[in-house]
Amino acid sequence: MDAVMNDILAQHNPSSVAILDADQGTETTYGQLLASVTRTSDDLRRELGRGLVFQLATNTIASIILYLACLELRFPVCLLDAGSAKRLEPLLQAFDPEAVILPTELEAPRDFRPGAPLADGTYKMCLRNPGRRALPLHPDLSLLLTTSGSTGSPKLVRLTQNNVLANAHSIAGYLGIQPGERSIQSLPMHYSYGLSLVNSHLAAGATVVLTRHSFMRPEFWGVFDRTRCTSLAGVPYIYETLHRLQFDPKQHPSLRTMTQAGGGLRRDLIQSFHERNSSAGCRFFVMYGQTEATARISYVPFEQLGEKIGSIGIPVPEGHLSLAPAEDSDQQELIYSGPNVMMGYAETAADLAAGDELRGKLRTGDLAATDSDGFFFLTGRLKRFAKLFGRRISLEDVEKDIEMRYSIRAAAIDREGQLLVYAAAGHETDRVGIARYLAQRLSVPPKYITVDAIAEIPMTASGKKDYKALSS
Amino acid sequence: MDRLLDCFVQTFGINKDQIIPLKLAYQSIPEWDSVGHMTLVAEIETVFDVRLDSDDIIGMSDVFKAIEILQKHGVALNDVVLAKSR
Q1: Same structural domain, A39 and A117
Q2: CATH superfamily ID and name for B2-85
Q3: Could you tell me if A436 lies within 8 Å of chain B, comparing CB atoms?
Q4: What's the predicted TM-score (pTM) here?
Q5: Labelling A422: which of A88, A100, A177, B54 has CA 20 to 30 A away?
Q6: Contact B30 A436 (CB under 8 A)
Q7: Whole-angstrom Cα distance, residue A316 to residue A259?
Q8: At what angle do helices A236-244 and A267-279 cross, to 10 degrees?
């Protein structure tokens, strides 16, 4: 017990700053954070007992305290985007949580009682109406994350307290995060990469800097410079945007480290950021990971990036990468083993009682090769996903969703970062309607979704959809 | 002006009557987030054949700003429509 307190919070100088809210101008020291997490976990234990919690997360102090309190108590907490509360309904139906923790200004979901204030009062907890039986929950289950904004049946990644702590220490280790560092929270907390920023910096006794401003606003960079942030994390579209904005690390003298994950960045941009960061004395880490491994799987040591452009690097400390023959492919599948590998997926409330099904070994679904220095390179994907703006979208889920909703046959493919859906229907396929529906459902600009009508979806000899024929 | 409004319609998947120049601004609708913003920039650059610099991109925070920036790049938009919507 007390792993989060002992392992993360109590290890550090109680007077050093854990969280700096730049918009409010408030600092929370490790001593204060420890006290707040203790108080909040007492409240949760009293009000709730162990039960499944949905938390609509925001990048705020209250949100971090609540998350840490749940993690400490091993109350399974599912972190969700507070900005898309309307997509909550299917998840509520599938998993039937005991409580929903959400910002005070948001309305309690249907079937939940109006909430009592929690943490610093900016959050409240809404308990489910009484009368239903409590769910059996596996004793180790502590954190649930969504894999992406996929459509169709909701799917959660089941993680333990140990997964989170192991990955946090591993990341802090290879990035060499020191207590004096300040990391700006440029990514949302419900997203595994965003959460890993919080976890790894708190594990290292460093400071997490919060702002509501987007990285592309001058206000964000005002905060960055004023609070002397030392590191910035970004997914590919953030780097693409910074490139468009002619980002120059030299203009931000406190910047020492940039990290990139959440999908492959174009090689020319890796090269370009490698060059501009090197000349500014700023380290640039290209990394790879999956929510299924809590967050991080591998990284390219920044000194070697110049010779390893396009590589996903070497495994994180305590992790191991290997290759195994892949089904339906003449290539090799990337296999990751480590203490941060999830217990398994959950698609229904009943799955939350299940134990560790993966036993530390994750088939990534990515095809890969390795070079003579032991660096890994992705060569393709076994599972069919589109990657839009760092978010993974299951093509199979998109197809199922369209087929059910419109009673037509559909095939979805990723065409150069765009989602292309072939809809097969004899007559009057509502192409615009389908595209609009998907854009909303996936929260992607409609421009990135094309729906084409096709007479018939081509099939292979073995009766599967022939994606090769569709792609050519 | 119609071509500019179309950029907003195309990028955000909204209807034309939702484009209220003083109200439609960066982060005023869920669709106009940072991803939507860069999509809008790319769309405007394609449609009007202009290359926006970083100040333009950062400054383009609402519909009027977009009009101003395009005018600075020598794109003539229909002022009548603009006056009416003000």
Answers
A1: yes
A2: ACP-like (1.10.1200.10)
A3: yes
A4: 0.85
A5: A88
A6: no
A7: 14
A8: 60
